[in-house]
Give the backbone structure.
Amino acid sequence: MDTIKELREETGLSFAQIKKALDEANGDKEKARAVLSEYSAAQAEKKADREVAAGVVSAYIHGNATIGVLLELGCETDFVAKNEEFVALAKDLAMHVCAMSPTSIDNEDGLGEESALLKQAFIKDPSMTVEQKLQAVVQKFGENTKVIKFTRYAI
């Protein structure tokens, strides 16, 4: 039960999903994390074609006021867009763009995966990429979630 509670606090996923992952992993917490990650990826893939008609625009200005970012994070409904965790994610992603200077969302500019936002290690949790973080959010909220666009300004 402690393991379920710990994974719930880490992921925000339902007890049922966590219990299923732990059962599949024979009680091994690390294997259960991997199983949950696979669930997230599969869930995100199923919902990828859904229209993102709602979302938030987040701004981040670095402490020295020489770098700023505007980022649009989309979701399917206003209900999710108004969720505190969703708004915080948008802010974290804007901060990530400020720190890591990606040039595209998914390498559409052809400059390589290291400059693609979705392929970069997430600055708040380097054990996952930004894409994996978004997949986890899709599983948690049950809605397609994606970075629509971002702009980074620097002096």
